[in-house]
Amino acid sequence: MLRHIAAAVVLVAGFIGHAAQAQETAAPAQTYVPRTYVHAGALLDKPGQAPRGASTLVVQDGRIVQVADGLLAAPAGARLIDLSDQFVLPGLIDAHVHIFSDDDKTAARLEAMTRGAETRFVVGLDNARRTLDAGFTTVRDLGSDPAAITALRDGIEKGLIEGPTIVNAGRMISISGGHGDGANGLAQPYAELERAHAVNTCDGPEACRRAVRIQVSQGAQVIKFAATGGVLSNVAGGLGRQMFDDEMKAIVDTAHAFGRKATAHAHGKDGIEAALRAGVDSVEHATFTDAETLALFRQTGAYLVPTMIAPEAAVAQARAGQRPPAVLAKAEEAARIAFEKHIEQYAAPGVKIAFGTDTGVSAHGDNATEFKMMVDAGMTPARAIRSATVDAADLLGLSASLGTLEVGKSADIVAVAASPLEDVTQLERVTFVMRRGVVHRLDGARQPWPAD
Ligand SMILES: [Zn+2]
């Protein structure tokens, strides 16, 4: 520790000397990268393991460079963030959001006809900021306009705009008339227009291979497809399997050939199991399962992404007339069954679960309300937190940089006022958010951005 402080002092001294010299020569040869010392009252650096007591995280250039027991004195020139009365943990990861979906569902239904891409993009910018402000430093977007989501993703990546790290699918791949067919329920002229331009619908394995390749060419980092019907599509097709084995296999194999993971939207048992047999890396919703389905999850090692808050939100919206009539019966069916089935899933040993909310159905920024539902459905808070950190990072293929707070990993850090291991709803009220070393929320208040 002494050696470290000494080194930091030398570095600071070197900087001061260098700055003076730079005034004379105006030719700085190297840049001093400031360090931030984060004092944590308790630190859950590796979710799934026990938390540490008072600890210090040292952050430099967006990464963690030291994790130490006790509250280390910050050297001169370093920034100190005092969270010594807070509980600190890794930034949260939501493996299923739709960042461009508007919280205003009545407007959203007509948006394709009434709003330009620019207007929708502005809504997405705000959603991204609210997501980050809620402590979600990384999200996987499973269905957005490919041009919009890649622009948002890259803008955040370059530090031009504020938001979470995004791992994106493009459009969800779907059979004609399936959950991802944008022509469902449209008047004929609009349906014809949609069908003329849609590149995400496919019927038969050849067409489905092509649909994956097109999504990859448009920037998709993960491939999402609809194995079964869905709650929110405007078609009364139920929630059972709609895609054939050869179509699913073509999608998964083509995604893997491009080094992309494949995830299936699936509610019905038949569709979930067919997707698992086709080799998917995860299943979204997985509403209707039994022991056989869970055995298949264990056998394949695929993640289950529960999205428990989505059906509840959808039922409320459908009852309020904010969703088309075809949605209500499906939403009620899914919401009714979701709760009891998830108790079974969470209790099943060996089934991998990654935190995901389908936010965009529910309101952006409310992502953390999923935690309480998971715990109410039988999961321990410790496991629920692990599902939103270590496990979600694994599903996203980002374990090297995310999921835990260890030396070399990204400084994606959040804090809450009291232990979420005892009260998981603490995560609905994060007091501190840092992403890649940049502070976005401090003392419970959103910080001005950009920081400089
Ligand atoms: Zn979704």
Structural overview:
The protein has helices at residues 2-25, 105-114, 117-133, 146-157, 188-197, 205-217, 245-257, 269-278, 291-300, 309-319, 325-347, 369-376, 381-387, 390-395; strands spanning 35-43, 55-60, 63-69, 79-90, 92-97, 136-141, 165-168, 222-226, 261-266, 282-285, 303-305, 352-353, 413-416, 432-435, 438-442, 445-446. It has two domains: 33-90 and 405-446, Urease, subunit C, domain 1; 92-395, TIM Barrel. It contains 14 helices and 16 strands. 38% of the residues lie in helices and 19% in strands. α7 (245-257) crosses α8 (269-278). It is an alpha/beta fold and 452 residues long. The chain has an eight-stranded mixed β-sheet, with no helix packed on it. A five-stranded parallel β-sheet has the order 8-9-10-11-12. Strands 5-6-7 form a three-stranded parallel β-sheet. Residues 96, 98, 142-143, 358 line the site of zinc ion. Zinc ion (ZN) binds at residues 96, 98, 142-143, 358.
